[in-house]
Amino acid sequence: MRIPCPHCGARDVQEFSYLGDASAARPAADASLDAVAEAVYLRDNPAGPHRELWYHASGCRAWLVVTRDTACHAIHAVETARAAAAARDLTAGAVR
Amino acid sequence: MRFSAFSLARNALRSLDTWTPHWRDAAPKPAYDVVVVGGGGHGLATAYYLAREFGVANVAVLEKGWIGGGNVGRNTTIVRSNYMLPGNVPFYELSMKLWERLEQDINYNAMVSQRGVLNLYHSDAQRDAYARRGNAMRLHGVDAELLDREGVRRLAPFLDFDNARFPVQGGLLQRRGGTVRHDAVAWGYARAADARGVDIVQNCEVTGFLREGDAVVGVETTRGPIRAGKVGLAAAGHSSRVAALAGLRLPIESHVLQAFVSEGLKPLIDGVVTFGAGHFYVSQSDKGGLVFGGDIDGYNSYAQRGNLPVIEDVMECGMALWPGLGRLRLLRHWGGVMDMSMDGSPIIDATPLEGLYLNAGWCYGGFKATPASGLCFAHLIARDAPHPAAAAYRLDRFASGRVIDEKGQGAQPNLH
Known about the structure:
heterodimer; A: 96 residues; alpha+beta; two-stranded antiparallel ribbon; 6 strands; B: 416 residues; alpha/beta; 8-stranded mixed β-sheet; 11 helices; globular
């Protein structure tokens, strides 16, 4: 499997570390215990497109959000985690 | 047909067409007392123990493929009970005891072979950790022996004892551990459950659940709706997907684990040996192939095939442990989908939906658990109370902080 890093181009998966589902957002500081447990432990775990966090440790050291099909390893989209967070904040109407 | 020395001899002398199918290929009935989703080892064992221990014989096991085609037929066949944490030790020891009398129980040759599982250590710290694990096991009545270097050399002289980076210092040996023929476990449980009236329905995929309010009263399948008093999920690597049909999210990620078999050889290695410095384990099948594996690939996958970096890592670990492996050719390798739970331990519990029960999260250790998993899940379904040996495998343990984290890795499924 090769991941097309936006900074470095397509690189072998061995250069990257995996940190799981990118949609599991950190809960607010005053969130309920149930909301924290859900964010830490519960996952959708789909068979198909999955947005996930990868860290390009042996390359540019950027955090990436990779949309990958878990049923066949095909990679549909890659963006930097920074861009993904900005887009999320924009849709949520947050003030940066 | 009941197997005995006499029946085997009689059939050996006749033409082969006297052998009969081991179980009926049942068509689904409209309703059952219990429907078990998943015809792997755990599902079949659950149905067998429901019928044998709890007198619930109006049971169907629904399998989307064919019996023996899932993880029960594609693992590395190792059985052991060398666990350390309180929630785990009694459960896996119960499983070990059930393995020891399995063949008599189900009247089937599963080739249970207690040839020993040896975990090597390569440093003082690792020796201390294994001494502690061995003590924890013995305190629970489980056998464990801490071997020094010479003790290991007598068992496995072919290992690289003088490896500059990871010299073998000794090992923790569980002599009662070993291997069991995995296909025979599936066939044997299917046959024994069928003999007690369980319907084993193949090529029947569950596509939804029948609901009455918050209660689950059956399943929708590719062979029509089937009503059930209770529904038990034992879907191995696909637990999340089946649970999602009922609107449940689980503390599980699916990952792929690759395993390997070499060309056939004369008897070369007696028991199971694991490499403590990296993740590698090896044993020899009765056909002669070396069976070995290592880490999961480490990212969510349902692909049933892995990627080359893990293959390279497994081979490197193998060569570091046993340089002679480099002379062998690989016959085949495969990837299976694992339910990796968030703390590395399984879940046997009722769900928030009435009538729906969950058996999931076996990570890549499900095979050794098969008999105890079936017995405990059957107990839970039949009595609506957890079996004492599986009382810690609760679904709410994540939210309540009572996780069973044998490896101490936290909520990181790819590290367990």
